[in-house]
Write a structure and sequence with these properties.
Blueprint lengths: L9 E6 L4 H11 L4 E7 L5 H8 L3 E7 L2 H6 L2 H8 L4 E5 L4 H9 L4 E4 L5 H21 L3 H9 L4 E6 L4 E4 L1 H7 L3 H6 L9 E2 L12 H6 L4 E8 L5 E12 L5 E10 L1 H15 L9 H18 L2 E10 L1 H8 L1 H18 L5 E6 L2 E9 L2 H16 L2 E3 L2 E3 L2 E9 L6 H17 L5 E3 L8 H10 L9 E9 L6 E12 L3 E3 L1 H11 L2 H23 L2
Amino acid sequence: MIFAEAKPGLRLVFLGEMSVSARSLLRMLSALPDVEQVIEITDPETLPHHLAAHRPDIVLVDFGITEDAVHRYLPDEIMPLVGMAPVIALTSGEREQRGIRAVLHGAQRYVCIESTDADYLVQVLQQCRDEHAFIDTLSGRNDAFTAIIESLNDGVIVVNREGRLVTANPAARRLLGLDRDSMDRGQWLAAFCSLNATSGEPLDPQSTPIARARRGEQFADLALIHDADGDQMIFSVSGHGLRNQRQQLIGGLVSFRDITDDFNQNRSDSRRVMFDPMTDLPNRVLFEEQLQQAVARAERSQRTLGVMHVDLDRFKVVNESLGHDIGDLLLKETADRLKGLLRNGDLLCRFGGDEFAVGIENLTGPRDAAAAAQKIIRGLSETFRCGGNEIYISPSVGIALFPEAGESAAALLDAAKRATGLAKQSGGAKLQFHSTAQAPNDEQLAELEVGIRHALLRRELTLRYQPRVNLSNGRLMGLEALIRWQHPRFGLLPPARFLPLLESSGLIHSVGEWVINSVAAQLHAWQQRYEV
């Protein structure tokens, strides 16, 4: 007889005893909006007739709801009568072994009726129908397809074109820590491998492995999930679309394996290459990569990007007077203090030695950059306590802005470093913006590199003296000697234009001796002339 009125959806045949439990289950089924029809029969001999006449989506068989059913409906006798239709075995919890036996004889699922509810039952019914139709479309050989994926050590998930679960092998359940009931309920599917393996950020819903596979994409990637204890796991995930013999896309297959240990080891190795071991900050290599990405973002958004080169004043004195251990502690404390002075998302690295570099995005202009630099100067000028010592240092900060000072990470860093040199020449504890007037082009740089070796011999280096006067009485207190290069083609050049060339060429010591001798000779001449 027809137990439920015709409604769009699943057509079901129920074979079993009309016990109280069975009738309660059938009433639940009849109330489901996804069920169109439930046909109730008690005689197994009539089952082939009803299958042919009604072509149900699923056959529900009472293999153990009641004691009577245990003896009357035997899996090895009923299953041959069903043929190719999908079967769900119904049992009670105390007779669960009957459901397991039914699955061994060809049933797709078994359900213990005490532990089920309407939502779960709908999911199981739909999944069984979809799985049967999918496998029939794919190859027509359910047993062969199932045997292949169930034998694999990698987890395998098959979905239809709508993204609903068709089947998952035992390895998938083991890797995900799910029992069959939890797997069938399907709530896990939306979160499956939906986090970026590197950042932990959620992937776009259209970029998850399930979404890509059901669209027919072929891919191999990494993804992050959290296990039942909340620990992170990294999966190597690959997938592709599945097509029938007519090359029509019918769904997707995703396979995955746990590579957490290998991933963590590789990340540890990578960290040693890309991070400074003393301060745990990104090193120069990683910083330049990050900065180049920031340059690309600034170019797209038309926003100002600021790059700062931070050089600690008098750090050499600390190293020489207190020892390298204290110097190392000071560098670590400086790194920690810089982290606190910057915003989340700002870039920071140890550039080398006592030098650090900073990248700040989305500035409104030079004023924002100057404010950030002043904050760094004030923060690093406060007392450091390292190994029982009170240490006072200050930073010189050079600032380069994109795109005025350069259009690549390397150019911006070079410009910021030159500006730092000017700040140190002015006494330190200052900020200095890069100026395009200070930046030689490639042709000029090549000429300066050649000319610097002849500057001393040609007497092109000169000294300018800046007096220091006591304003209260007008008396001269001292003089500051400032070096300049009177270049025959480029005119009078400030130190920032040629001091890096002196250092790189090894001439800095010779020039230093010349400065000392020249200043001493000039002082002696003044003393003789003015009889000081």
